[in-house]
Every structure is written in C-alpha cells, then in structure tokens.
Amino acid sequence: MNLYARRKTVNAVALTLSILATAFGLFWLCWLLWTLVGSGLKWIHPRLFIESTPPPGTNGGLANAIMGSIILTAAGVGIGAPAGILAGTYLAEFGRTSRLGGVVRFVNDILLSAPSIIVGVFVYALVVLRAGHFSGWAGAVALALIVLPVVVRTTENMMRLVPDSLREAAAALGAPSWKVTIRVVYRSALPGIMTGILLAMARVSGETAPLLFTALNNQFWSTDMSRPFPNLPAVIFQFAMSPYEDWQHLAWAGALLITVTILGINIVARVLLRRSRP
Amino acid sequence: MLVLASVFGILLTLVTGAWPALKTFGFKFLVSKEWNPVTGQFGALAPLYGTVITSVIALLVGVPVSFGIALVITELAPRWLKRPIGVAIELLAAIPSIIYGMWGLFVFAPAFAAHLQPWLTDHLGSWPILGLLFQGPPMGIGMLTAGLVLAIMIIPFMAAVMRDVFETVPESLRESAYAIGCTTWEVVWRVVLPYTRVGVVGGVMLGLGRALGETMAVTFVIGNAHDIHASLFMAGNTISSTLANEFTEAVTPLYTSSLLALGLVLFVLTLIVLILARLMLTKMRAREGLRT
User: Fold this and answer.
1) Are B22 and B29 within 8 A, CB to CB?
2) CA–CA min distance B229, chain A (Å)
C-alpha cells in the first residue's frame, strides 16, 4: 500500500509540475503578446503609413521603412527562392541517393541553422567591402541566403511526397524526365512549395541582424537599391534603443506591425498546406 | 550548387578575414579578455564567456519547461486542446527575435529589477559560492536577463521538437505500459523518454544552437560591456551582440579582422552543436529502423 501511495504521489507531483511549466511558459508568451498589442496599438495611426521616419521630437511615420522592408523582402525572396527550388528539385529528383546529394543536404542544414548575423558578416565582406558602401542589394543578398536553405528543405520534402507511381506512369507514357518533373511533379507539389516560400518570407521579414551591416538604414524615402536602404527591423532597433519617447512609440507600432504581418503569413501558409492535403 | 558555394564561401571569407587577427594574437585570442580598440588589443574571452553563460541559463530554464509543455500536449491535454496549444506554440516560434528583445528591454527588465532581483540577492546572495552569482546592483539588464529572455525565445521551438519526437512512440508501447498499471508519469519517464532520449537531446541541441547565435534579443538586454563578472546581474556581452554593436564602427583593419575572427568562433561553435545534434537524430532514426 505504501508503494502505491508513493507512486501516486510522485505521479501527482510530476504532473502538477509539468502543468505548471506549461502555464509558466505560456504566461511569458501571453505577457509578451499582450504588451506588444497594448503598447503598439496606441500608436498605430494613419500617419504611420504615409510619412517618413521623423527626427526626434516631431511627428512622422514609418512609410519609408515599411516600403523598404517590402522591397528588400521581395528582392531577397526573388533571388533566394528560384535557386532554392532548383536545388531542392535536384535533391529530390536526381541526387536522391548520390553522394553529392548527401553532401548538399548536410551543407544545407548547416546554412539553415547558421546564426543570421554570420550571414550578415559574410555578405558584408563579400559585397559591402567590395562596393565600398552599404547598399540595399547587399541586404537583399543577405536575406536571399536565409531564404535559400528554407526553400531547399521544403521543396525537397514536398517533392518527395509525390508518389513514385505518378512519376513512373508519366515515364511509361514516354515523357522525358524533365517533362515528368515540370509537368507532373511540380504540379502536385506546388502548394507545398508555395508554403515553403511563404514561411521563408515570414522568416526574413523580421530578420534584423543581417541587415544591420548590409542594408544599414536610411531616414528618407528611397527606392535606390544601390544606396543604404530603409527597413523596418533596423528602424525598430535604432528607435527602441534611443532615449526619445516618440521614437520608442514608433518602434512599438512597427514591432506590432511586423508581428501581425508574420503571424498572418504563417497562418495563410498553414491554411494553404492543409487545403492541399485532404 | 549555390548552397554548397555559399557555405564554403562563408567559411572561406571568415577565415581569410580573421587571419590577420589570428596571426597577431595567436591562441591568446581565445583566452585573453582584453578588448581595447584604442590600443589595438583584442581577445575573445569575454564575449565567448557571455555566449556560453547566457546559453547555459537559457537551457537550464528552457529545457524543463519545454519538456513539461510537450508532456502536457502529448499525454495530458484533451484532444480539443491539443491542436490549439500546438499551433500557438508553432506561431510563437515564428515571432522575430527583435520583438523578444524589445519586450525584454522595456517590460521584462524593469519588472525583473524591481521584483525578482532583490529577492534573489536577499535569499540566495548569502549562500557560499553560489551566492556570488546573485550579488550586485539590480539593474535589470545583464547576463541573467539575457539568459532568461533567450529561454523564453527557445521554449516554443524546443517544445515543438519534443512534441514531435514524443509522438513517434508507438501507441502499443504506451498502452502496454498503462495496461500493467503504470501511472502517467511512469509511462513518460520509463517508456516514452528512454525511447525518445536521443531525439530529445537532439532537439535540445538545436535549441542550444539557436541560443548561441541569437543576436537581437540579446543585444537589447545584455548591457554590452566587455567584462567578465562572477555575478549574473552584471552587464556582459556575447559574440553576436558584439558583432551587432561594433561591426559598423570598426575603424582599423585589425579591429574588423578581430570581429571576423569572433564570427568564425561563433560559426564553428554552432557547427559543432549542429553536427552533434544531427548525429544523435540519425542514430535514433537508425535504431527506429531496427525495431520496426
């Protein structure tokens, strides 16, 4: 009887502790979101979207930073995604068992988990030092390097889900292998690949570290990619660290904006994925 | 091919860029805590120490909590609660780190300084040896805060991985354990955990890799001082926050080169962690293959 009692107590204690742990974890996360909404919502204002970042003490918005972030993300995804899809196709269709495929897969994992700031340093040495100044292109390249491994991974996984019998059926009809890949495999893996690209997009639109010393930042409206480029995360970083209250308010508004965007993209990606898999 | 090229490119650039610094300081670069741009003395010990300490704190706090969350999701929660908690955790893992950093600086650090830090100093500060960790002014920002913010950041990530590995346990194993009268805890501790041990460790390693390389969340709250203190309340520095703060300010070639060398150290560190994690996950998969 004593043994049973002890086992029961141990069980109860352990389960209580793990429920507490869950509550503890969720508590921080709820607190974080609550603060974010609480202090961000107050400063969301139409001005935010039509005016550029102000000097301290005056009114302004984040229009240039928002626009800059959109352009940078688009450029990064534009460079990284096609390369990623091609590499993923290679891994799934042609290099499935080859030694080279294994190496690429492993290296891709390294790139996937490399700290983003290292990517920034690399692009700095590669592009910024050569060009002699910070530029939007350097930022786009850094983001592309982060997009790349994510897209490679999801493309490969999604293309592998396509049943082999489908490929064999196409081949049996006499289709050459490039036609099998493009007309049959891509068609059925498309929603999955799109999801991968969306997730990659969500990831880079909040990346700050690699932009700090590639795109730098810009106080003004700019669409010239060969100059320092305005972007939302760097503005948030700079404004949040500043002692000026109105800058901090803008930073909160920007933070809320980014979070909502990213969560939105994530949810869209999820819905897309679920719809493709009945 | 681009993938291969970019990783080797990164490694190559870091090594060549770091070469002048490594040549000048040799092995001393790793063990010297001197960091003085004016006299041109650079050593990596302080940032390296900060990186390791904050990551250790993050793991100490994060691992038990994420284990608990994964346990609740897989074993305890009723079916209708499982999906929402799971999705919430995955979404939280997607929030950019700069948000965590901002929240840490404006909300967490002041609250921490006002409530928790004095309490820690009062109650733990007088302990021998261990007490040294909790002495010092309650400034809010510092190593401990950075470690805790990191923990909060990697919890969703690790919990998601652990949940996935827990779900690989065959239902029949679990049911047989329950059938011979095991309590829930015994099932988890004696059946689920041994079965998934390697995978759980792999997940923790991936979390560790994330904590090591995290930049923005840490830069906000760590205080950025090139010092090593016994107390966790003092400001410190990590490799990534040093890079973020000083890279655009590096004026001499040797300065830039030293920062690149720091980057190299970090890259190698995360590489080692990643390879270990991968080895373990592969091992587990191999064993799984044997069993079925």
Assistant:
1) yes
2) 24
